[in-house]
Amino acid sequence: MTPDLGPLGLIAGGGQMPHRVIAAARASGREVFVVVVEGWADPADFAAVPHIVVRVGAGGHAMEQFRAHGVRQIVMCGRASRPSFTAILPDAGMARMLLRVGRAAWQGDDGLLKAVVRILEEDGYEVVPSQAIVRDILPEAGQLGALAPDERAREDIGRGIAVVRALGRVDVGQCAVVQQGLVLGVEAIEGTDALLARCAGLRREGPGGVLVKLVKPGQDRRVDLPTIGPVTIEGAAAAGLAGIAIEAGGTIVVDRPATVAAADAAGLFLVALSAAELQSTETTP
Questions:
Q1: Is 213 left (phi over 0), alpha (psi -120 to 50) or beta?
Q2: How many Cα atoms are found within 13 Å in the side-chain-facing hemisphere of 218?
Q3: CA 89 to chain CA mean position, Å
Q4: Do the Cβ atoms of 82 and 188 come closer than 8 Å?
Q5: What residue spans of 14-58 are helical by DSSP H?
Q6: Which of these three, 132, 160, 175, is where a domain ends?
Q7: Strand 32-37's sheet: what is its strand order?
Q8: Contact call for residues 254 and 17 (beta carbons, < 8 A)
Q9: Nearest alpha-carbon partner for 81 in 130, 23, 41, 35
Q10: What element of type H or E holds 143?
Q11: What is d(CA 151, CA 120) in angstroms, rounded to the nearest whole number?
Q12: pLDDT 10s digits, 115-128
């Protein structure tokens, strides 16, 4: 255990990212205490690490357990589904948190998460990004796989950047699918996997489209960074896309070797766009 930091607290959703955080923290000699959110992740996957399972409305109990286990730093990561606040049955601690969240409860994901982070910090916790624990998950700019986008795909990437930026400014989503200049779909509450599945039935004849996935303008980069992995590649291939463009230094690639290998095998390009490229290719939506 790292004595000056104590055990790492992890609020875990689904997918592989929570397990990458656990492995990296333990490799550094640090213990981890996990709060598994019911319905977001399978508790059986965390059997080898100290953990509790809480329903979404039991935020107060989760914080009590963090304090009891000496947690001062918290990572929030993994696939999650946003609950309806009218359906939550909050415990006493969660009810107090909801009052402090206030109007942010009715904003987009980033607005809500910023409010949650603020409350955690006011209560003495430090919220740290998963990329501070797992060092190799944010790729640098450049071509990640064997293939590169052609001129048509580059034009679709530019269109996608403009659309995703517009979505992000109103805190709606982090990605869009564009084919031949046409926006086949944008991400809202359903998530990337469902977006790709939906776009599979909207594919046009001719060159395949692109998935563009970026950080929202002004987003708190400690939580909910856009994420891709082998499942994303599988969905993009099934949707008939030509490739995927992500934001360098801002989009998590959960298992980079497996993700790149899957993209190469599927014949998809995978590129990480620099800040200069994002600026130069952005067009009016």
A1: beta
A2: 13
A3: 26
A4: no
A5: 17-27
A6: 132
A7: 51-54, 32-37, 8-12, 73-77, 126-127
A8: yes
A9: 41
A10: strand 142-143
A11: 46
A12: 888 888 988 999 99
Report strand pairing: 175-179 vs 182-186.
antiparallel
Does one domain contain both 67 and 102? yes
Three-state SS for 274?
A: coil
**Does residue 1 belong to any structural domain of this protein?**
no
Q: List the structure tokens of 38.
A: 């019911």
The pLDDT value given to residue 224: 87
Tokens of 99: 């009052």
Residue 65 is assigned to a structural domain of this protein: yes
Please give the average per-residue pLDDT across 134-158, as a whole number.
Answer: 95
What is the DSSP code (8-state) at residue 255? T
Task: Dump pLDDT digits (tens) for 20-62.
Answer: 999 999 999 999 999 998 888 999 999 999 999 988 877 888 8
Contact by Cβ (8 Å): 210, 237? no
Residue 27's contacts (CB-CB under 8 Å, 6 or more residues apart) are: none
Q: Are 105 and 199 in contact (CB under 8 A)?
A: no
DSSP one-letter code for 105: G
Tokens (6 digits) for 77:
């990561």
In three-state secondary structure terms, 38 is strand
- Single out the residue in 75, 107, 132 at which a domain terminates: 132
Mutual angle of helices 92-101 and 109-122, in 10-degree steps: 120
Phi, psi of 125 (to 5 degrees): -95, 155
Under a CB-based contact definition with an 8 Å cutoff, are residues 191 and 209 in contact?
A: no
| Sequence-separated contacts (24+) of 201-204 with Cβ below 8 Å | 203/179, 203/239, 203/240, 204/179, 204/180
Q: Is residue 2, in this structure, part of any structural domain at all?
A: no
Q: What angle, rounded to 10 degrees, do the helices at 230-238 and 192-200 form?
A: 20
Looking at the structure of the chain, the number of domains it has is 2
pTM, two decimal places? 0.86
Amino acid at 195: L
Q: Which amino acid does the sequence have at 107?
A: Q
